[in-house]
Q: What sequence folds into this?
């Protein structure tokens, strides 16, 4: 891969298509989730090796609790095992792991693992892996507004101090904006993911299901990202002479 490529600082991935990947192979949905989790284990390490500073992944949305008890339970078990595995691998690489989302109604066993991993990796410096579990972008905004209102009420913050930086620092984690947002499986929607942080992200929608989103597929995403012209509401770079 061309070494002159610009590497996005913050990459976000909606890990979608585990179920359809399994169905296409005559496997169960659980097997699809397992394959997705295995894939993320190696892929996350690769993405940090490429120079990405922050990687956010959408592992479970607030809305995913609408799924069958069986599927939700399977995923919760997978999280307890899988997160431990990620932390083992990434801790060695000096990557900090954080979680975004509401705690309620996640089972205690999952919360315990999340808290332990957060604590174990808190001093790591090479990058941040933000795992979004029981996450909803609209709820994140509601929760931030509540926290800010509470601080104002307790005289810890004044109205004039509220700006984009203050708002961002009241998100579940104080992260930089997303540069590249990838959703696998050929679906073209955000499904409530990082609504605030994705404001000027470049979007990329590969057709492959997440378990088949390999390191080579990630390289393709970076190449595509390098073809984009990010203007942030301004004018095209080569048009700025007058
Ligand atoms: C994404 O795969 C994983 C989670 C939402 C937990 P899906 O389970 O949504 O897979 P599809 O979209 O049904 O194929
Ligand atoms: C989004 O995928 C959530 C995650 C990948 C965790 P979904 O499969 O739940 O989204 P919809 O229902 O297709 O919008
Ligand atoms: Mg899906």
A:
């Amino acid at each position: 891969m061309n070494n002159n490529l610009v590497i996005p600082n913050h990459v976000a991935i909606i890990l979608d298509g585990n179920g359809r990947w399994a169905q296409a192979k005559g496997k169960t949905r659980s097997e699809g989730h397992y394959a997705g989790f295995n894939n993320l284990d190696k892929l996350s390490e690769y993405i940090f090796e490429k120079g990405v500073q922050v990687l956010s992944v959408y592992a479970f949305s607030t809305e995913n609790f609408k799924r069958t008890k069986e599927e939700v339970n399977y995923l919760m078990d997978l999280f307890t095992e899988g997160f431990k595995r990620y932390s083992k691998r990434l801790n060695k690489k000096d990557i900090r792991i954080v979680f975004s989302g509401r705690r309620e109604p996640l089972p205690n066993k999952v919360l315990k693992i999340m808290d332990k991993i957060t604590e174990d990796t808190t001093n790591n410096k090479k990058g941040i892996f933000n795992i979004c579990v029981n996450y909803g972008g609209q709820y994140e905004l509601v929760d931030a507004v509540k926290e800010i209102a509470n601080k104002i009420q307790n005289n810890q913050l004044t109205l004039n101090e509220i700006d984009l930086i203050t708002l961002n620092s009241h998100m579940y984690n104080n992260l930089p904006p997303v540069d590249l947002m990838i959703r696998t499986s050929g679906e073209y929607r955000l499904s409530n993911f990082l609504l605030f942080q994705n404001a000027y992200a470049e979007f990329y929608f590969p057709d492959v299901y997440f378990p088949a989103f390999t390191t080579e597929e990630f390289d393709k995403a970076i190449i595509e990202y390098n073809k984009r012209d990010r203007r942030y509401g301004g004018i095209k770079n080569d048009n700025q002479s007058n």
